[in-house]
Amino acid sequence: SAQKPTQPGFQTNEYADAQLQEIVKKLRERANVYKEKLNDPVLSSPEGSPTASPKKPPPPPKEEKKDEKKEEKKEEAEEKPEEDHYCDMLCCKFKKPPLKKYMEYMKLPDTIDSYTDRRYVAWLMLVTIAYNWNCWFIPLRYVFPYQTPSNTIYWFVIDVMCDICYLCDIVIFQPRVRFIRGGDIISDRVETEKFYHSTVKFRLDVLSVFPFDILYFFFGFNPALRANRMLKHNTFFEFNDRLEAIMEKAYIYRVIRTTGYLLFILHLNACLYYWASDYEGIGSTRWVYDGEGNMYLRCYYWAVRSLITIGGLAEPQTLFEIIFQLLNYFMGVFVFSSLIGQMRDVIGAATAGQNYFRSCVDNTVSYMNTYSIPKLVQNRVRTWYEYTWDSQGMLDESELLEQMPTKMQLAVAIDVNFAIVNKVDLFKGCDTQMIYDMLLRLKSIVYLPGDFVCKKGEIGREMYIIKQGEVQVLGGPDGTKVLVTLRAGAVFGEISLLAAGGGNRRTANVVAHGFANLFILDKKTLNEILVHYPDSEKLLMKKAKVLLKQKGKPPPGPPAPQPRGLASLFGPKQETPKLFKAMLGGKGKDGLARLLQLKRQEARVKTQKTEWNLLKGLGQTEPEKTKARKKKKTNKKTSKKETQAETETKPKEEEKKPVEPTASSAPPAQKEKLNADAKPEVMQRSTSKESLIISMTPSPRAGEGEILKVEIKEKEKK
């Protein structure tokens, strides 16, 4: 290590010096932390509690050791990396996951949550496809001559596949579906199976798979024997509900489903028309189907014109035809009116939010036109509406959350806003539940470009958290200089929120730079929350004091030179205690000057007394001036300050008695040096023959004060 001489005859090691400074710095920080702990017991200790050393387990017996070795070998065999499976297709080679992973993913749990399990929704879709096959093709095959002996095998195979789907749903999936009983979610496999077997849905499902197909051997392949397959309608409606719950835009599926209902009713009407034509005789009258063209398309066209009451059809001739047509018209009016109303509700629900937005904008514009608001303000209001709707999808988020329970509101607020609020340094260390309560009280406000969030000189009673966008802090002599730009996650105005006395003045202008979405928390709301969290309140008040001190500090000057060597081990000189300053009656040089003045007065009094005693011993009287002064002092009362000075000097006089030079135990050399360095203060009094020399010299012993010396010399004759 390099050494650098600091003084002649004294050297310091730079490495050791740096290490010592680091140790002293850590000790001071630790001492400050413990001082704060004594002043504020709410703070926790900075040191973590020591963890207990883990105890050594007792050695296992030999048999267990053998079993453990076998298990370890199995685990090692399982932990071996699996071989990559590749599939060659055409000219490409791609990686293929092993079959074991597929089986693990497809393995069904003991019970199924029908609201969250996507695999269950996929299975319902498969059963729904089988149900729609039966609903559409059983009437078609029964009425129209599309099922022939040559293609019966194909129809039969598809029917068997649909029946397998029905059976798997009854045996495997439906007994696993959880249910709610008394507010509790029952997830026991035995209980779910019992519950399913006791419902009406189970009975209908069993009827839907009852094997009436056996009658094929007696009546032939008649599709009407499969009509019971259409009783599985509960699964169809359950699939609709689950699919709408997981779709982002469910109204699209509702429109498709309503259109499917319309097409299915027209399909049934076409089948009935062909059956009536076959009953009357194909081509027997002008009203029935004439047997030309595609039979299904011709019948479907007639059903559309008949049910929608377009008109232009041939008049019925027989009584059967008239009754059939009348019933067809009545059914068309009823069914289509309900379908049109349902379609209107679906479209209205899909555009309800947009209609509400348009009505709000129209009402606001009408209000501004009524009171002749300037066009510039109207354009800004329209811009605010458009941006708020595009960014949030609603004008006020609280309206949506108010419909939910408090716990759900909190869950949504945590997912949306907790990540932003948790970054705020002001709330770090506070109770997490207090932050949760605060999330429910935050208000979101959108500011347009150039809007003043707060102005200089305003009374601040709230703080702001930037959710999205940027704001600029302006200052300077003209208030247009950009001091700093704050972005998402930044906080400003927290000093106003925590300041005592209701708030303080804003010190700068804050302007939105572009569109800015801010959270606002006012002082009243925060106080209502902190009532229930006293520990967090103490912590916030402490942070507020620190912020206020930092705000009031002058700008930092040049850094002070750091002491080097062993001088860095000692801290800077502490300030004189206030009690000692008060005792001195002043600060700095004034107090010291007063103390010296009191000592000089005390010395003068002592010299006068000794002088008078010496003069009396010589047989001389006191001077005229001193006699008059003494007589005057005895006639007048001393002031309060003089009496206080005398009372203060009495104990000092007792402590500082004059010590004879001969009584000193100092060596002669030291005495001579002290006498040589001292500058005696000479006080002369006029006498007849002798002159009196009085001097004050410091005592060689520490704490003994000064030594008074009196010398008498004869006057020199002129």
UniProtKB/TrEMBL annotation:
Known catalytic reactions: K(+)(in) = K(+)(out); Na(+)(in) = Na(+)(out)
Alphabetical keyword list: cGMP, cGMP-binding, Ion channel, Ion transport, Ligand-gated ion channel, Membrane, Nucleotide-binding, Sensory transduction, Transmembrane, Transmembrane helix, Transport, Vision
CDD domains noted in UniProt: CAP_ED (cd00038)
Annotated ranges, domain Cyclic nucleotide-binding: 426-530
A GO term for molecular function: intracellularly cAMP-activated cation channel activity
One cellular component term from this protein's GO annotations in UniProt: photoreceptor outer segment
Transmembrane portions of the chain: 120-140, 152-173, 255-275, 326-343
Domain of life: Eukaryota
Chief subcellular location: membrane
The keyword Cell wall biogenesis/degradation is annotated on this UniProt entry: no
Name of the protein: CNGB3 protein
